[in-house]
Amino acid sequence: xxxxxxxxxxxxxxxxxxxxxxxxxxxxxxxxxxxxxxxxxxxxxxxxxxxxxxxxxxxxxxxxxxxxxxxxxxxxxxxxxxxxxxxxxxxxxxxxxxxxxxxxxxxxxxxxxxxxxxxxxxxxxxxxxxxxxxxxxxxxxxxxxxxxxxxxxxxxxxxxxxxxxxxxxxxxxxxxxxxxxxxxxxxxxxx
Length: 191
What we know:
Layout: H1 3-13, H2 18-21, H3 38-57, E1 61-66, E2 78-81, E3 84-94, E4 101-107, E5 120-124, E6 127-129, E7 132-134, H4 138-141, E8 144-148, E9 158-160
Parallel strand pairs: 1-9, 2-8
Antiparallel strand pairs: 1-4, 2-3, 3-4, 5-8, 6-7
């Protein structure tokens, strides 16, 4: 045998070493969480955070009863105090006796202190009278509900709305004068 053949024969006769018999073992990744799961976990946490924030910012739901809808629209009509929006109409529906409407509205969280006995709601709509034109801006912006909150009274979530502003509602600290006469003449409400 030649020397090369003898070397090959020796290599065949000898048993392989441990490193030659078994391939290198790879570590299993089954015990660890894959990085791909980070995306849905982060989305779940973000969604839960948004739901919690929405629930925390949600204001109080109230019912206001009016004799008719008068242009009130769900998700479009606002509730204002001193020309600042403090709520929004969520739903307008007929009442159970079918002689008026029920307005379901949500007030902002900061306006919850307004919800007391004595709080007045009325429908602001354009009016033309002998004393002048009022609320003409509602022709373009749409009608809204005005609120004058009460400072005292028990908490309440159901109110009876008015079609016209109550006398002295916009100026509650003003003076009210009552005139009595046998003839009305040219005096009208609001003059």
